[in-house]
Write a structure and sequence with these properties.
- By secondary structure, the protein is α+β, with helices and mostly antiparallel strands.
- The chain has two domains: about 1-60, no CATH class; about 65-99, no CATH class.
- It has three helices and four strands.
- It has a four-stranded mixed sheet.
- Helix 2 (about 65-80) runs antiparallel to helix 3 (about 80-95).
- The longest helix is centred in the last third of the chain and has 15 residues, at about 80-95.
């Protein structure tokens, strides 16, 4: 840890086991942001004063709503990986154009 910084973002998938017990570890490592996906919804958590609090917008991707991420994760089951990635790239192109 002395040589390498913590990751900017951690993604936890809480399908079978909750991530709650790992949050203090991430806080000690000073990971600034955690996304927790439970199979239905996605929460963004930001590190503030040594604890994780729910935040409205991702710190790493502030223009990418959680609902859009969940939508494309769910689409993957209907359309498959390839088509979903194609549609996601199009969404990014249409919605997150650089100024």
């Amino acid at each position: 840890m002395g040589q390498d910084p913590p990751p900017d973002l951690v993604l936890e998938v809480d399908i079978t086991n909750p991530s709650d017990r790992r949050l203090p570890i991430y806080a000690q490592l000073q990971v600034p942001e955690i996304w927790i996906y439970n199979g239905y919804s996605l929460d963004f958590l930001g590190l503030e004063n040594g604890a994780y609090l729910k935040i409205e917008h991702s710190l790493s991707f502030p223009n990418l709503p959680a609902a859009v991420v969940v939508e494309f994760v769910q689409k993957r089951f209907e359309l498959g990986d390839r088509q979903t990635l194609k549609e996601f790239r199009q969404w990014v192109s249409d919605n997150l154009k650089k100024s």
